[in-house]
Amino acid sequence: MRRHLSQSELSIARFAGLLYLAIIVFGISSEVALRGPLIDLTNAESTAKAILTALGRFRLSIAFDLIMALADTGLAVLLFILFRPVAPTLALAAMIFRLVQSVIIASNLMNLQSAVLLISAGQDITVLAPGQAEAMATLFLNLHGHGYDLGLVFFGLNSLMTGALIWRSGFVPKVLGAGIAAAGIVYLIGSALRFFVPEFSVVFAPAYGVPAITETAFCLWLLAAGWASRRPHLASA
Fold this sequence. Notes:
It comes from Pseudohalocynthiibacter aestuariivivens. This protein is mainly alpha-helical.
């Protein structure tokens, strides 16, 4: 069990923290601040009008999600480098699952683009009945939500592996490992509910506070890796 990180590893940890911060900021901004307020899946017409009124804002949300996916790809590689000495096979598996999630998130953006094309004259809709384009656009928006949860299945498994790596590392506080693993369980349960018991998804929604807290805490530890590594007693917390 290691207690310290080398200077090169500290640099990797800090850069990983910056990428993690970008993921958090761009991800929350995209869904909560930019796109979320425009979408009402129960009303296709009002959703289409809201998006067209704020088309630039909606497209910016797509750009933010793309940046998030790119940052997530880089973070997957950096965390693999950081935890490879702890357990090479487990670190490799964690990286692969996180990369799969990144690919799903990036490709899933085509659902958002499809919705835009349908309602912004970017696609020939003359053969569609009145209101059908708006309904189809809402379907694509709904598919994007489901696609995101599909990505979280892989991220949930990644979080369980990352939690185990943190726990075994000796240079990251064990409480963070337990928290990241708990976040993985939340992601897996939330995605399962979304696909198989959607009526319980709203009830389960507050549980996502666990990933929000633990991932932010891990991000902050990475950013302050130099401080944390100089206090080896934290690793046994």
